[in-house]
Amino acid sequence: MSLMTEGEAPGPVRFYLTCDDIGCPARAVFDLVIDEPPPPIEQDLFAHVLHSSTRAAPYLEKQGWTFRQGIGYWCPTCSTPRSLRPAPPKPARRSPVRRQRRDPKGPQKQ
Question: Locations of Basic residues compositional bias (predicted)?
Fold first, then answer.
């Protein structure tokens, strides 16, 4: 899963998010203060585990991240259809690697 948390509600919770699209290096780290404690783990394990991420979902949507069922979170760039994305920058030309010239007389003794 691409969304990890550090900290417990109620209080500040740090979120670590990575894009799940193949080959995308996008990452995000943010803090949210969650006022409500999670439900007791004995009553509802699923809601207890997902309490923080449920509170962060509206914030993530505002930032342009989308959740794809069965795949995970996609960053704003990967969420945009390819036809609407700006073209990637072209790589710069590198200067050719030049070898040092050989001394026609061969190695010199000093």
Answer: 91-102
